[in-house]
Design goal:
Belongs to the short-chain dehydrogenases/reductases (SDR) family. This is SDR family oxidoreductase. InterPro entries: NAD(P)-bd_dom_sf, SDR, SDR_fam. It comes from Actinomadura vinacea. There is one protein chain. Helix 1 crosses helix 8 and helix 4 runs parallel beside helix 5. The protein is about 45% helix and about 15% strand. The protein has a single domain, classed as NAD(P)-binding Rossmann-like Domain (Rossmann fold). The longest helix has 28 residues. The protein contains eight helices and seven strands; from the N terminus they run E-H-E-H-E-H-E-H-E-H-E-H-H-H-E. With about 250 residues, the protein is an alpha/beta fold. It has a seven-stranded parallel beta sheet with strand order 3-2-1-4-5-6-7, sandwiched between helices. The chain is globular, with a radius of gyration of 17 Å.
């Protein structure tokens, strides 16, 4: 299926590995020109080398609003504009209410909420002017089913989901869609860090019988950016192999 994305320009945050890298790869496969960012120059350049010539690596940290804004501005300079924004960032440290100090919440909100707001502030106005744009936020299945040991992520990503839904309603008439994907357990370094590296044990708790393939997740990102998905907006879509057990 031709997704109608050839020649579009995308900024994909935190894409030196994991789900961000998979999203960048899927968009490149559809003929999109892509800018990616990461904090570590060596790792970022290695990722860009694997992705190919149509990738523009930008060293930066989207964990602060200033860094998030700078990434989108750098992507705009490199590509001549941003038609597609994929927001993404690493997760904050694990912890419970009892173990997490108050000062940790501000850092987590910057990382997983304010970075999303800042990137959208930098990218969406021009999308509205052009009458075409796509925002896809990578959040977490914890938005619907909070993880007891990830209170910072639960809190910040729920806030981001509320922001994205509100933004989607405001820009729906301007040709701009805003959606989020809620990954469950995928074979990434983050999952290995949180779950102690034993992915077989994780897979046993997933109805699909396996952890997710990041490439499959990337394909979901690309579809939400497509012409075929132009009537999908304001949605928060689980990509989790059935791991979330609720009806809605």
């Amino acid at each position: 299926m031709d997704l109608g994305l050839s020649g579009r320009r995308a900024a994909v945050a935190a894409a030196s590995g994991g789900l961000g890298f998979a999203a960048a790869q899927a968009l490149l496969d559809e003929g999109v020109r892509v800018a990616i960012c990461g904090r570590d120059r060596e790792r970022l350049d290695a990722a860009a080398g694997r992705l190919g010539a149509d990738v523009h690596p930008i060293v930066g940290d989207v964990g602060t609003p200033e860094g998030a804004t700078a990434f989108v501005e750098g992507a705009r300079d490199a590509l001549g504009g941003v038609d597609i924004l994929v927001t993404n960032a690493g997760g904050p440290p694990p912890g419970t209410f009892g173990s997490t100090p108050l000062e940790a919440y501000g850092r987590a909100l910057d990382l997983n909420l304010m970075s999303v707001v800042a990137m959208c502030k930098a990218a969406v106005p021009e999308m509205r002017e052009r009458g075409w744009g796509r925002v896809v936020a990578i959040t977490s299945i914890a938005v619907r089913q909070p993880n007891p040991s990830l209170i910072l992520s639960n809190t910040a990503r729920a806030g981001a989901t509320g922001f994205l839904k509100t933004l989607a309603l405001e820009v729906a008439g301007d040709g701009v869609t805003v959606n989020s994907l809620l990954p469950g357990s995928h074979a990434t370094d983050r999952l290995r860090e949180v779950r102690g590296g034993d992915l077989d044990e994780v897979a046993a708790g997933i109805p699909a019988g396996r952890v997710g393939d990041p490439a499959d997740f990337g394909a979901c990102v690309a579809f939400l950016c497509s012409e075929q998905a132009k009537f999908v907006t304001g949605s928060a879509i689980a990509v989790d192999g059935g791991e979330y057990g609720g009806l809605l």
